[in-house]
Specification:
alpha+beta; 3 strands
């Protein structure tokens, strides 16, 4: 596990964040001995990310259905 001092973390924040993303987490240690953990937040998935359904129809057929529906 990577441990950075407060000063190192402040001077190299981008590197620290990249390391946390690759390794999972890094520690930042202050002079007073307190230690903090930096870890990436898991990405939430969109409720719109749904698996598609194969209906066995072509794009042209879908377009024809939409055009027909608009004419009515």
């Amino acid at each position: 596990m990577n441990v950075y001092t407060y000063t190192e973390a402040r001077q190299n924040l981008a590197t620290l964040l990249d390391t946390a993303l690759q390794v999972g987490e890094v520690l930042i240690k202050r002079k007073d001995g307190s230690v903090f953990v930096v870890r990436p937040q898991p990405r939430g998935e969109s409720p719109l990310d749904v698996e598609g359904i194969d209906l066995g129809i072509s794009a042209a057929e879908i377009v024809a259905f939409v055009q027909e529906g608009r004419r009515q």
